[in-house]
Structure formats: structure tokens, C-alpha cells
Write a structure and sequence with these properties.
By secondary structure, this protein is mainly beta. Helix content is 10%, strand content 64%. Strands 1, 2, 3, 4, 5, 6, 7, 8, 9, 10 and 11 form an 11-stranded antiparallel beta sheet that branches.
Length: 202
Amino acid sequence: MSLKHLIIGAVVAVCTFVAQAAAQKNELSGILGRTFVSDQGIQGAPSSDPDLSFGKGLTFEVNYARRVADAGLFSLALEVPFVVNADEDVHAYTNPFLGYRSYFVTPAARLNVFPDLAVSPWVSFGGGFGHFSGNSGSGLSTAGTTTGALQGGLGLDVRIFGHFSLRGEAREFWSGVPQLNVTTGKSRQYNLFAGGGIVWHF
């Protein structure tokens, strides 16, 4: 093998390694789960049915993240979770068929422990906005509310093969409240999303 071929081969190998190393800085994940919202008391409601009761809406998340710092034992990534609760059922004494959809986009910083090992726990914190839309409880009318939202989360990534991991996570979105034509006296609510899915590292 000539020196020229050896140099070309070395350059190709280095470029391939660099490309793979750079590729590992990015993630795309898909998560499926449920959103849980605590019941809320309705002001002036009859004692037989005093609460605004929420269902457990089927929810999905799409998340892009990029690793921006690596200290061996820890790594820091910037992520953009987009979480959609497509159908949150709500019961109130005025109307048992309330419901809404919610959307959260909360750019965040995520800290992973043991990021390059088979099992990596993590915590996340960020903020952005949420939007609620759907049945307001007044016939066919709809109500839409856009609100600021804070997000805190924790999870566990488990490598399965190649560039793929399994992820289990829980994220709490502290947001405003949907407009449902009942008075609870609250201006904020907790929306707990718990789910699992797959992560592609590239």
C-alpha cells in the first residue's frame, strides 16, 4: 500500500470517527404516556358533586436534544420537549362532558449522569408556553388559553442496541388553567406527564 493510500485511509477513518462522535451529540425521541391533573374544588358547587375531575389523557411527546457539554461523569444537553395531550376529559356538575386539548413547548436544560454508560438517569428543567383549547362547557363554543409554563422532569435512559435507547420519564408542567366555565379559584395547575418510549442518538 502506497503512502498516498495510507494517508487517504487515515483521513477517511478520522473523518468517519469525527462524524460518528458529532452524531452522538444529537437525540430525537418519541414518548407515549398519560397526563394526570389533580381534581379541583368548584366554588359554589353542590356538596354532592363539589369537584372538577380530570381524566387521564393519552399524551405523546416529541423531543429534540443536543449535547453541549461533557464532563465524563455528567453531560449537559439542551432539549425541546413538545408534549400534546389530545383529549383530556373533564367532569363537572354543570356538564359531565367537558374536555380540552393541551400543548406544551418548554425548551430546557437536561443533566445526565453516566451519559455514555448503558443506564443513564437524568433531570430536566426549563420553561416555555402551554396552550389549551376545546369544549368550554357552553354548547358548541370553544375556548383557547395560552399561558406560560415551567417544566421539571426526571427520567432514565437504557441503551438497547446501536444508536437506540429506551426512555422512561415523568415531567411536570406548571401552567395556567383551561377555560371551562367553572370557578375553582385557581390560576395555575400541575400537569403531570408520565410515559415511555424510544430515543435515537445520531
